[in-house]
Amino acid sequence: MANHIGVIGAGVMGEALIAALIRIGENPSVIDFAEKRNDRAEE
Fold first, then answer.
1. Could you give the number of structural domains in the chain?
2. Which of 11, 12, 39, 42 is most buried, taking the most CB atoms under 10 A from its CB?
3. Per-residue pLDDT tens for 26-38?
4. Is the pTM of this model over 0.70?
5. Which sign does the torsion angle of CA 28, 20, 17, 10 carry?
6. Residue ranges making up the domain that contains 17
């Protein structure tokens, strides 16, 4: 069964969480995030 991970808010904490998931080997294609600030989402 494949995992799918969602992060609400890609602020400093959300970015740290996503980076840690990728660092431990999680496939970036299963990580989604929601961010209300367009400028932050584009980073």
1. 1
2. 11
3. 999 999 989 887 7
4. yes
5. negative
6. 5-41
